[in-house]
Known about the structure:
Helices cover 31% and strands 32% of the residues. By secondary structure, the chain is α/β, with parallel strands linked by helices. Helix 3 (38-52) crosses helix 4. The chain is globular, with a radius of gyration of 16 Å. The two termini are 32 Å apart. It catalyses: AMP + diphosphate = 5-phospho-alpha-D-ribose 1-diphosphate + adenine. This is Adenine phosphoribosyltransferase.
Amino acid sequence: MPHLFSANDYLRQHIRTVPDWPAPGVQFRDITPLLQNPKVFRVMIDAFVHRYMDDGMRPDVVAGLDARGFILGAVLAYELNVGFVPIRKKGKLPFTTVEETYELEYGSATVELHSDAVRPGDKVLLVDDLIATGGTMMAGKKLLEKLGAQVMEGAAIVDLPELGGSERLRAAGLPLFTLVAFDGH
Length: 185
């Protein structure tokens, strides 16, 4: 029997695990190898494009979270022929913004969105590289909703379910789509 190609398994093989970074005990999941190899990058983008090109799943706009969400989100928006909006760290956007502050393990962070980035009723796909605690994606969802948009789904390459973010986001009403999950080490 021929071996069936699994995009998820293929992509998992190209995610580098860096032990003890940025702190002892952390297993950092590095997606840069996915971007370096043109075939791997294409397989990854196509996995998302195929999901979101159907009429029922097609967004009006893609929003990417600073900074690796820009890479995936911009290419995805281009392939879907929809607009792209960046959700940036505070102080990086030049026009009028709305902002949302969220808690980190130690302290807090703030993200911003231009006040004219989306229109009320827009169906938005919210994209990041990885879901850990879910704080950044939750802040992005709240920002988009402040402007009247409907966040139809959150998408990421990697989910780290043991950190609770994906469960927290789903509990807040955000459907999620991820390509690879890493449980434990």
